[in-house]
Specification:
By secondary structure, the chain is mainly alpha-helical. The protein contains 24 helices and five strands. Helix content is 63%, strand content 5%. The strands form two sheets. Strands 3-5-4 form a three-stranded mixed sheet, with helices on both faces. The chain has a two-stranded antiparallel sheet with strand order 1-2. Helix 18 runs antiparallel to helix 19, helix 19 runs antiparallel to helix 20 and helix 22 runs antiparallel to helix 23. The relative contact order is 0.09.
């Protein structure tokens, strides 16, 4: 099931979870508040499988790198301080082979390993200082869910329109290319995919900055870069290694799923006509029929997929979603249970199942929902959706203090510190003292007070100069 969430602190996978330039370009090119993250167990699993070996080859710990999927059709990928990699859905859909996509991921890992983002000398230069502080605050606001406020700060940052100011240097790009080639070779993969990706968009080099894809505005391309990369790749013993059929199939299925959810039904039917009986085509059409309220044909396509591969949990997950969102909640329970039986530790699947249980509303289903959600949150303690559903479950059980606590956790996960603090205080008033929930509510209050005090001290004036507030935080009074 694909979830869309505001671009906030919810990360794609905690096992994967300064200012980076390409993110700023993305926000400058489109309304910041329109950006959202995609959450889907299948897509996340495939991206993790593609990414983790490259991170290890780069000497990076997969547990310390966060990977995010951005719901944006433009071609872009970027990294930020804190070892965070962002991939646009458009980048995934334009990749013809896993090797092309892996090449870009390896390149972004190269930026992290190179460390130029973390070191960024720009911050130490007066010409850039105020701009970077303002842009950094804008980014923080957007990641905290305050999209409009963040966009306003970004739009007013001095020299913000000068894209070349924050662009990666060509030297930095070349270094990341070379690192990417090394990581691909260390994992026994060809570097040709990255060259193919660059060659495919070589014409971007001659376009004006305003007309280039965001990726090539922030990652300047040149013939010299391609030639230098080709020299290294041609000498690699893995240069002729092809993608496995399994990896190609996984990418094709991910692309079909994304197109089904993100493209209009007619576009999907044009790309995947009824005469195409391959699994990716059926996958995309099942979603397109579902979006077009054609339940009969949606179920026909997904049932055909289940018959062809009854051990695939994601087919059952999609069938459950189709039934649930078509008003057949009771019928959705069997397929979602089958999905969980095949993949018992997937937090998003567990949360979807719990949501259906909460809607049933019986005492037994609510008890089961609470236990299922606790299991999901042990894997992803910052999953705002899981906390939201848990709050609903507690509310229906008339456990109001726990419902308030779950609401505080949800707000905290989404970066809404005011709301988190408010509900944590309300929960503390009714929770038994020194229970785990009471202590956690105390932690939320202290952290929220500290962070909100920092925001007050560094809140920018209209001209983006900054003053220090002497007002102490509530936690220090």
């Amino acid at each position: 099931m694909i979830f869309f969430s505001n671009l906030c602190k919810s990360l794609i996978r905690g096992t994967l979870p300064a200012l980076i330039i390409s993110f700023i370009f993305m926000l400058a090119a489109t309304p910041a508040w329109s950006q959202s993250l995609l959450r889907d167990t299948e897509i996340e699993q495939v991206m993790e499988e593609f990414t983790v070996p490259l991170l290890r080859a780069a000497g990076l710990s997969p547990e310390s790198v966060d990977l995010y999927l951005v719901n944006d059709s433009s071609l872009n990928a970027f990294v930020t301080r804190g070892q965070k990699i962002f991939l646009h859905s458009g980048l995934i859909m334009v990749s013809e082979t896993p090797n092309q996509l892996k090449g870009v991921i390896a390149h972004e890992a190269g930026h992290i390993a190179d460390g130029r983002i973390a070191r960024s000398d720009y911050q130490n230069r007066s010409a850039y200082g105020s701009m970077l502080i303002a842009a950094g605050l804008g980014l923080a606001a957007i990641l905290a869910g305050e999209g409009q406020a963040g966009a306003a700060i970004l739009a007013g940052a001095p020299s913000f329109g000068q894209l070349e100011v924050l662009a990666h240097t060509r030297t930095g790009e070349s270094v990341a290319d070379q690192y990417a080639a090394q990581y691909l070779e260390r994992t026994g993969q060809s570097g040709k995919g990255l060259i193919e990706f660059f060659e495919k968009f070589r014409y971007q080099e001659v376009l004006s900055s305003a007309r280039r894809y965001p990726y090539f505005r922030s990652h300047p391309l040149s013939s010299d870069r391609i030639d230098s990369l080709r020299e290294v790749v041609d000498e690699s013993p893995s240069r002729d290694v092809k993608d496995s059929e399994a990896d190609q199939f996984k990418l094709d299925m991910v692309k079909a799923k994304l197109r089904g959810f993100l493209d209009g039904p007619q576009i999907v039917f044009s790309k995947y006509p009824e005469t195409d009986l391959t699994p990716p085509a059926r996958y995309a059409r099942s979603v397109a029929y579902f979006k077009g309220a054609d339940l009969k044909n949606a179920l026909r396509e997904i049932d055909a997929l289940i018959e062809s591969d009854p051990q695939n949990p994601f087919f059952y997950e999609l069938k459950a979603q189709i039934l649930y969102e078509s008003g057949r909640g009771e019928d959705s329970m069997e397929p979602i249970r089958k999905a969980i039986a095949l993949m018992p530790d997937a937090p998003l699947l567990l949360t979807s199942y719990a949501q259906a249980l909460v809607e049933q509303g019986s005492e037994e289903s609510l008890d089961e929902a609470v236990e299922v959600l606790k299991k999901a949150l042990r894997s992803e303690p910052s999953n705002g959706m899981s906390w939201f559903v848990l709050g609903q479950a507690y509310g229906k059980q008339n456990k109001k203090p726990l419902a308030k606590y779950a609401t505080a956790e949800q707000a905290y996960a989404l970066g809404n510190l005011d709301r988190a603090r408010m509900f944590a205080k309300r929960a503390q008033e009714d929770l038994e003292r020194n229970t785990p929930q009471w202590r956690r509510a105390s932690d939320i209050i202290v952290i929220a007070d500290t962070q909100l005090a920092k925001k007050k001290r560094y809140r920018p004036r209209p001209n983006f100069s900054f003053t220090h507030s002497s007002e102490p935080s509530n936690a220090l009074r």
